[in-house]
Amino acid sequence: MGDELTLVVGLGNSGPKYEGTRHNAGFLVLDELADRVGGRFKAHKGGAEVVEGRLAGQRVVLAKPRGYMNNSGGPVSGTAKFYKAQPASVIVVHDELDLPFGAVRLKLGGGDNGHNGLRSITRSLGTKDYLRVRFGVDRPPGRMDPADYVLKDFSVVERKQLALELDRAADAVEALVSSGLEAAQNQFH
């Protein structure tokens, strides 16, 4: 990969009201990665909070778009432009209803699967061809509306395993950065 930069974006909603919610899984994984690079998030003119550092020996910028998930695209494309990161060097970490809690899946491109954060990013980047790290939050119980479900905190049982699962998702991001998609998929799928 040389010394080109990878932009790692975590999706979530800003503000204390949303901190521990399923929809903020991307932010939670980025907090773990920020600890690993030894940085603190700072406001950036691209519209995100960023940390610059090295992960697995590679240059990375960790970014949390400010504002609401549905409008993530502007901050992501603004930050990507500022750092001259091509869409193929962008990794988006997000919550995924279609995976069991804690499951991690990696892919390049694809649809947004009803995820408004991904829809916004695809529109702003002008392509679906960016990497995704999908963090499973499971389906809502019974007839609960998925939109309500993702804005709720993780359950007591999930919270007991959460740190471990977030750690594994951060490992998956590191593997993507250091060895690329195929090798990382073989390790984590």
UniProtKB/TrEMBL annotation:
Q: Which GO terms describe its cellular component?
A: cytoplasm
| Chief subcellular location | cytoplasm
Kindly state which reaction or reactions the protein catalyses: an N-acyl-L-alpha-aminoacyl-tRNA + H2O = an N-acyl-L-amino acid + a tRNA + H(+)
Q: Which GO terms describe its molecular function?
A: peptidyl-tRNA hydrolase activity; tRNA binding
Q: Where does tRNA bind?
A: 18, 68, 70, 116
Instruction: Fetch the Pfam families from UniProt.
Output: Pept_tRNA_hydro
Q: Name the UniProt key words of this record, in alphabetical order.
A: Cytoplasm, Hydrolase, RNA-binding, tRNA-binding
Which Gene Ontology BP terms does the record give?
protein quality control for misfolded or incompletely synthesized proteins; rescue of stalled ribosome
List the residue(s) that the UniProt entry marks as the site Discriminates between blocked and unblocked aminoacyl-tRNA.
13
Q: Which InterPro entries match?
A: Pept_tRNA_hydro (IPR001328), Pept_tRNA_hydro_CS (IPR018171), Pept_tRNA_hydro_sf (IPR036416)
Q: Domain of life, per the record?
A: Bacteria
Subunit structure comment from the entry: Monomer.
Question: What protein is this chain from?
Answer: Peptidyl-tRNA hydrolase
What is the protein's species of origin?
Answer: Actinosynnema mirum (strain ATCC 29888 / DSM 43827 / JCM 3225 / NBRC 14064 / NCIMB 13271 / NRRL B-12336 / IMRU 3971 / 101)
**Which gene is transcribed and translated to give this protein?**
pth
